[in-house]
Amino acid sequence: MKAKVYVTLKPSVLDPQGKAIKHAVELLGFNAVSDIRKGKYFEIAIDGSRSADDARADAEKLARDVLSNPIIEDFRVEIEQ
Amino acid sequence: MKAKVYVTLKPSVLDPQGKAIKHAVELLGFNAVSDIRKGKYFEIAIDGSRSADDARADAEKLARDVLSNPIIEDFRVEIEQ
After folding, report:
1. Nearest Cβ partner for A66 among B25, B32, B65
2. What fold is seen in the domain A2-80?
C-alpha cells in the first residue's frame, strides 16, 4: 500500500524559494504564470498487512509529527491501494 | 487556474534523504513503513485567460525545463480549474 503526503506552506507564510522560481520563469518568457509555491511530496510504502484505515492513521501521524512543521505548513494524505 | 507539478526521483535513482527519513521513522516506532521517497511539489497559478490545454502545455514545459532534472527525475502534471 502506498501513502502520498503533500506538505505545503500555509497561505499566510512567505515562500521566497517559490518567488525565486517565479522570477526565473518570468525571465524565460512564461508570462501566464502568476505565482509559484514550492512544497514537499513523500511517497511512503506501507506493509500490505495494514488496513487502509490503519495506514491512513499511520501516514497522518507521520505527516504531522515528522514530515511537516504544523506551525507553518499544512499537509494532505492520500492512500493508494 | 492552478497547475500542480509533482517531481519524483526515478525508481532506479537512490534517495538518501528518503532513506534517512525512513530510518528516523523506524526509530520512532512506525514498523509498518517499508520505504519512504522524497519528492518535490509545486503549485503554479496560471492566468485564467489561458485554456486548460494551453495551461497544461505551459506547466509541462515548465516542469521539464525548470522544475525537474529529466536525467534523474520524473514529473507529473495536474490541472485544476
Report:
1. B25
2. Mth169; Chain: A , (3.30.1280)
| C-beta of residue A40 within 8 angstroms of C-beta of residue B41 | yes
Residue B75: C-alpha distances to residues A29, B23, B67 (Å): 21, 26, 9
Separation of alpha carbons A65 and A59, rounded Å: 10
Specify whether the CB–CB gap between A32 and B50 falls below 8 A.
yes
pLDDT at position A39, please? 96
Q: How far is A34 from chain B (nearest CA, A)?
A: 5
Q: pLDDT tens for residues A2-35?
A: 999 999 999 999 999 999 999 999 999 888 999 9
The ipTM assigned to this model is 0.86
Amino acid, single-letter form, for residue A58? D
C-alpha distance from A72 to closest chain B C-alpha (Å) = 16
Question: Is A42 an 8 Å CB contact of chain B?
Answer: yes
Interval B29-61: pLDDT, tens = 888 999 999 999 999 999 888 888 999 999 999
pTM tops 0.95: no
